[in-house]
Amino acid sequence: MNDHKGAGLLLDVLPPARELIADRGYDSDDFRIALQGRGIAPCIPPRRNRKVLHPYDTATYRHRHLIENLFAKLKDWRRIATRYDRCADIFLAAIVIAATVILWLK
After folding, report:
1. Are residues 62 and 102 part of one domain?
2. For residue 43, what pLDDT is reported?
3. Would you say 94 and 85 are in contact if contact means Cβ atoms under 8 Å apart?
4. Neighbours of 21 (CB within 10 A)
5. How many domains are contained in the chain?
């Protein structure tokens, strides 16, 4: 099952945005139309078997890789990966501290 089938349900909870960066799993005409109806420009590369190739900004799409790398490094922190903190504020503080250390040591 592709990701775009479940992503349509999440459109109501998306924060206001100008652009959505996603991978090829979200490439569908229905999802693109739904995003454009909300005023969000999709930055989604087309699947390889598509007959109509939709353009996307490759420079913006490269930022997705940086974000995924940060999430991968955050998962190395055991406290964050297993979510020891029950309070959302303390959990967010742990994420901020870990992200600061990760980016500072880079």
Report:
1. no
2. 92
3. yes
4. 20
5. 2
Question: ∠ CA(39), CA(56), CA(30), 5° rounding?
Answer: 55
Decide: helix, strand or coil at residue 54.
coil
Q: What is the mean pLDDT of residues 66-82?
A: 85
Residue-number span of the structural domain to which 96 is assigned: 75-106
Which amino acid would we find at residue 94? A
Whole-model pTM: value is 0.68
28 touches 2 (CB < 8 A): yes
How many C-alpha atoms does 11 have within 13 Å on its Cβ side? 21
Q: Encoding tokens for residue 38?
A: 């909300």
Note whether 55 and 3 are same-domain residues.
Answer: yes
pLDDT given at position 28: 85
pLDDT in tens, 19-52: 989 888 888 888 889 899 989 999 999 988 888 8
Can you tell me the mean pLDDT for 48-57? 88
Burial code of 57-68, b = ≥16 C-beta within 10 A, e = fewer? Answer: eeeeeeeeeeee
Closest to 44 measured CA to CA, from 29, 59, 61, 30:
61
